[in-house]
Design a protein that fits this description.
The chain is an alpha/beta fold. The protein contains 8 helices and 9 strands. It is about 40% helix and about 15% strand.
């Protein structure tokens, strides 16, 4: 059984690395690996605060700026975070960090860690491609929000949380275009491909490890199911 987790950079490194979260996350995943020798995980790690800070600096330094350059800066941040996560997983992860989901070697160990690939989308898209490659039935998308809302709750007080939503309706919320550093529940490019291949995505709050344990155990959890 392969579980693909799109691990938002905003929870791994909101500004700097959240060491307490990473430690707790690694320990939780270790529990599942020890309990079931057939269980395997793929983590695709985002860029978080460092990516956005460096992208902001680039846009201030270079006017007009280019999205592909901003994307490359973000991608480098994802690779730094992913390398840290690979090291933190220790003996569970025996392969190098994946930076091209279309050229990934056979999954030999128990944990595989991936980072950003190329401009034009976020690591969510990489997670969808890896789920497709290794026949996972869903992607668990962990970020700093507990549920998808009808609109951005930070700017719209009338935005309502959603328990389940179709890809058609979800894509009306996030749109079709990708902008480097765009803050949406799930990348529009990834959403389009997930809808095409019939992949489900579950969005949940990454730092709520008790809730994550329920989700990974197949128990009732707090979050939003898409698809």
């Amino acid at each position: 059984m392969v579980t693909v987790i799109s691990l938002g950079g905003s929870i791994v490194a909101p500004d700097v690395v959240d060491v307490a979260f990473v430690k707790g996350f690694v320990e939780l995943i270790g529990e599942f690996l020890k309990a079931d020798e057939k269980r395997r995980f793929i983590f695709v790690v985002g860029g978080g605060g460092p990516a956005r800070a460096w992208q902001k600096a680039y846009r201030e330094l270079v006017v007009p700026s280019k999205d592909d350059q901003a994307d490359w800066i973000g991608i480098m941040a994802t690779r730094m975070n992913a390398q840290l996560m690979r090291a933190a997983m220790g003996e569970w992860c025996t392969q190098d960090v994946v930076i091209d989901p279309t050229q990934v070697a056979p999954f030999m160990g128990r944990v595989l860690v991936a980072a950003g690939w190329k401009p034009g989308f976020s690591t969510d898209y990489d997670a969808v491609l890896l789920a497709e490659r290794f026949s996972a039935d869903k992607v668990v998308n962990l970020s700093n929000i507990a549920k998808v809302h009808t609109d951005d709750p930070r700017t719209n007080p009338d935005a309502k949380p959603i328990d389940a939503i179709s890809w058609t309706d979800f894509r009306k919320i996030v749109g079709d275009d990708w902008v480097p550093g765009k803050n949406v529940p799930f990348d529009p490019i990834a959403s389009k491909h997930a809808a095409k291949i019939g992949l489900k995505v579950v969005c949940a709050a990454g730092r709520d490890l008790a809730n994550l344990k329920k989700l990974l155990s197949g128990e009732k959890f707090v979050g939003t199911e898409i698809g």
